[in-house]
Amino acid sequence: MLAPYQGEVEQPRALAGDDAPPTQARWVQVLDEDERALASRVMVSAPGLWPPVVTRSDEAGYVALPEPGARGPGDEPMRFYEFLARSDDDEEPRAFWGVIQGPGGPVFAEEGARFVRASPAADLRLGIVDAEGAPVEGAFVRLSRESLALLHLHVTTRADGVAAFRQIPPGTYYVTIDAEGHTRRTLQVQHETDDAFMLNVELLEGGGLRMPEAWRAPVVQVLGQSSSNSSLAVGEASSGGGASIDEDEDEAAREALEIYVADPQGAGVTGAWVEVWHAGNRVAAGVSAGSRALSLQVPADGPLTLYATHPGWGEGQLVGVEPGGRGGATVRLGRPLLSMPVPDRVRSMSAIEGALGQRIVDTGSGHQIDVVDPQSPAARAGVERGDALVFARRAGEELRVTVSRAGRFVEVALPR
């Protein structure tokens, strides 16, 4: 399930294990700025814990942290938590939303508890409209502290297009909006408790992934014309075995083609996945090298079509390339991810998310896979939290998803 929380519907669930004496739980106390105890509604999550736990503190503000579900180096539990507490006081609401370090072991009641300090809070309201300014009903809106976060709040817009999140402390938040017939949009919102302003957010018609403005990085490198043997073999670029190259094409006469990849301003892009297609077959592939040329062996009888994909800069296409031309060929990026009609690519974002069992999140530097549920198909296939989507392709009964991880490309197979 991609959306475990709808609106403010929260089902209480015990935080401490049934076999854990309450005096040995990992206690946290919710206090206000004057250190007075706050009875609060609480959501808490930790690495490897899914779904997040929803409960209440007692009247003295005490709540017990769950046992984390993931372990770090040395097999030690990863004891950090994302913690959201919202007070029961509607007249003077207070809230805390942040990451806290949990204790290394049980905390006895007589030893006291860790505490979080809640601050004045207010509702965060967004008005979702289309290009004509009309309200969009039924838009799915997600709120989180970070683009990839352990806790998310979800609401669906009403007939008036309003999405309201109750009792949110001041700060900067990520908002992601999905609506049928519109392009997904992600933006950062600065929330202030003394501001009753409602931000109107305009959605564009279409589908897929909208290119965020954060990708428009300053030009730091201009394309050169030097040649290089910097290309990576396909197998090296993808741990899943790489792209298959047609064997009959491989036996045909070939010659070297120098390929450059540029961003929309003309700066060289390093780390873009490049494919060369000829007569409906993928005949070569490699990884761009910035101002240096990527040299690939391609069929000598062209014309060729070049595709380039980068998890941050998007996609580009160059049609009708003839081998042997002077100066090589330059593919300019700038089209949204999943927009290029590559023959074997899956361009449906909903199909990719459905196969992953996870959402794809715009982080401003790429579209990253939000692996939260350790039992999701994405997690079972080896996708890691923060992997950036590059593309997905059909392979028989499987969907093969290529992600960018720590500067390299990794391919994972998912059942369709």
TrEMBL record:
InterPro entries from the UniProt entry: CarboxyPept-like_regulatory, PDZ_sf
Pfam families from the UniProt entry: CarboxypepD_reg (PF13620)
Region (Disordered) residue spans: 1-22
Domain of life: Bacteria
Name by which UniProt lists this protein: Carboxypeptidase regulatory-like domain-containing protein
